[in-house]
Amino acid sequence: MKKVATIAGSDATGGGGLEADLKTFQEFGTFGLAAITSIVTLEPETGAHHLRTLSLELIQEQIASVFAGPIDSIKTGLLPTQEIIDLVSEVIPKDIPLVVDPVIGGKGTQDFIKNEQVQALREKLLPHALITTPNLREAGILSELGELTSEKQMEQAAKKIASFGVKHVVIKGGTRLAAKQTLDLHYDGRNFTRYPHPIIDTPYNHGAGCTFAAAITAAIAKNYPLDQAIKLAIDFVQAAITMGEKINPYVGHVWHGAYTHGEKRLEYSDEQ
């Protein structure tokens, strides 16, 4: 069985973060391991999110535990301080495919990381990455091009992000593009590949970004060609969003089991 590692924040509500990663790894038939960088909690009374960061020593001990055996691919998620980014960049093996999900904030939250951390992502982590998967807002921040609202701007941002040393950039179009159809854009340093897909009209999409990057990470571990890994991840997330669930009064999450279990669930619902 392929072994896949995530170094990310924990989402106590279960939709994003390393919870999303581990659920996705499981759906892909891989064995997931995790090092927790931080914990994001939600106030039941207000819906406000709070971030607590773990100590560097504890993070380093977790990473050492994860890499005590062979690992086939690595994903990073929320790395909330410059020191954590520096640590992760230094200690993870450089010969294992690395997927960087450059988490800057979450849906309905303030930004988790600021300018210093963004600069550390550019200079320390992205040069080691096989692929990075920013959404439009993250791509605009990483590239310093600001708000991206068109395919042309996405292309410009992808080229700028690739200049930091990452081999492949996938920018997720999402609902910020003013169109009935959105697209994910892959840049391999020379060519662009477009993956258009319909916008799903639902508020239950928390965790979609983490799930997308985790799906690519698991597919890479299973030796999928990168273009196939990206397309499979898109299909996986589209299903997860389509069958998203309201989890509490403030957020609704994607359902990570939708791609593999969705039809069985629909059959069960019909029987009821």
**What portion of the residues fall into strands of 2 or more residues?**
15-25%
Oligomer: single chain
Q: Round the Cα radius of gyration to an integer and report it.
A: 17 Å
The largest sheet, given as strand count, sense and whether it forms a barrel, is: 9 strands, mixed
Q: Major sheet: order of its strands?
A: 3-2-1-4-5-6-7-8-9
User: Helical element count?
Assistant: 9
Distance between the termini: 37 Å
Mean of the pLDDT scores?
A: 91
Low-confidence sequence ranges: 266-272
Level of helix content? 25-40%
Shape: globular
Question: How do the SSEs run, as a string of H and E?
Answer: EHEEHEHEHEHHEEEHHEEH
Number of strands: 11
Secondary-structure-based class equals alpha/beta
Overview in brief:
By secondary structure, the chain is α/β, with parallel strands linked by helices. Helix content is 40%, strand content 21%.
What keyword list fits this structure?
21% strand, 272 residues, alpha/beta, two-stranded antiparallel sheet, disordered C terminus, 11 strands, nine-stranded mixed β-sheet
Reconstruct the topology from this structure:
Elements: E1 3-11, H1 17-27, E2 31-42, E3 49-53, H2 56-66, E4 73-76, H3 82-91, E5 98-100, H4 115-125, E6 131-132, H5 136-143, H6 151-162, E7 168-172, E8 181-187, E9 192-198, H7 208-221, H8 226-242, E10 245-246, E11 252-253, H9 258-271
Parallel strand pairs: 1-2, 1-4, 4-5, 5-6, 6-7
Antiparallel strand pairs: 2-3, 7-8, 8-9, 10-11
